[in-house]
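Table S2 (text version). Query chain:
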Amino acid sequence: MNPSPKQYHRDGDADADADTERLQRYVDVLDDVLDYARERDYKGWDYGDGMSSRLLLSVPIDNRWFNLAVQEFIKRSPVNVRPLFLVEKRRNFKGITLFAMANRTRAQLAEWFDGDRPAETYRDDAASLTEWLVENQAKGYSGFAGSHRHVIQHISGRNGPRSGIPHSPNIVSTAYGVKALLAGREFDPDYPDIAKTAVDVMLNDLNYRPKDDGAVMDYYLSHPKDSYTLNALAIGARLFVELYDYFGDEELLERAEKVYDFVASKQTDRGGWYYREPASASHLSMDNHHNGFIVECFQRYEQLVGSGRYDETLERGLDFYARELFDEDGAPNFDEEHPYPRDIHATAQGILVFTYAGQYDRAERAIDWALANMYVPSEGRFYFRKHRFYTKRMTLMRWCQAWMAYAIAEYVATRISGEPTHGYGIDADGIERLRAAAERP
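Corresponding structure-token output:
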């Protein structure tokens, strides 16, 4: 019989039993969310997928303003109009990275938590999804790269061709792909070496370059050259530092710190970050989940490097994030000025940040708020956004399901292992340590 998580809590039987019950409840939700995705082959609609409308593709014009109008109408409509516009359901590259890591972690958690499916189901899905990332990487670039699987129209240009599968790399998809390959190295020993080739994509294709005593990169190929997307830069810096942690290449650490330096220098007096530098180039203010990305990336640096270089930056960023971007009941605010819309992606990112900070009570409040306000238990799916007077009840596979599955898996795994797991699950030494602890009287 698998050991119960309550065996790792020595505070008292009542507290241990309550904690065990809570963790099992979260694992049950995780199972249902993964089942929802698995039954649909991890395919679904996505946040900015309007350009994949077969109706739009049938129009014999190609005008970016028309494309933007259709894309934004589909994105912002209070009801899901994607079926009317014949928007195709696809796998999202970043979504698959999150599902791969969540499944792998759930397979490990089978040591401690009951479920309707054996560990092999989750492990097999993790292995096949990780393989899919390699097979479906953006090809024709300097190394391993991730891309959106549908076209996105920006004012400055678009990712990929007007029809078909886009192939333009971006920092965020690539960085999460690297994380998934490193986490899934047990499935193929070549995965880390494949992941390391992403460095060349950052240097050559996304134009890593010095800037303001630090360094920057382009978020995507058509990104405006006179502005910088700060959360994407932080995620790119994390890519370098995670590869440094695996390979021990000091040049990777140096490159990471230059990008971190640039991002740290753009922290506002308030403690948060605008979406872009300069702020005037951004359509967003200091919004929730993008600030969460930045804080998480500094958390990862301090965990892996531990130099204290960004202690003040991290402390101020985490304080701003907790104080101004979340209510006490766990509800996520949209940005520093507006509570609505309350977005499920923001909730997921909050769970991650608070979990890695050891602020488990905040993480639990965020999970519980989402379960009470944004979840359909009978279907295992989360809603997209809650506005002041209505809720967008569509479920976007990456934005809703993948992020919440990943966040809940991370919360539970971190609680069990006693240290932040950051997508890598509980390592073999940690599992043996926990087994030994369970066997002690």
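Notes on Table S2: Residues 6-12, 161-165 have pLDDT under 50 and may be disordered. The first strand starts at residue 152 and ends at 154.
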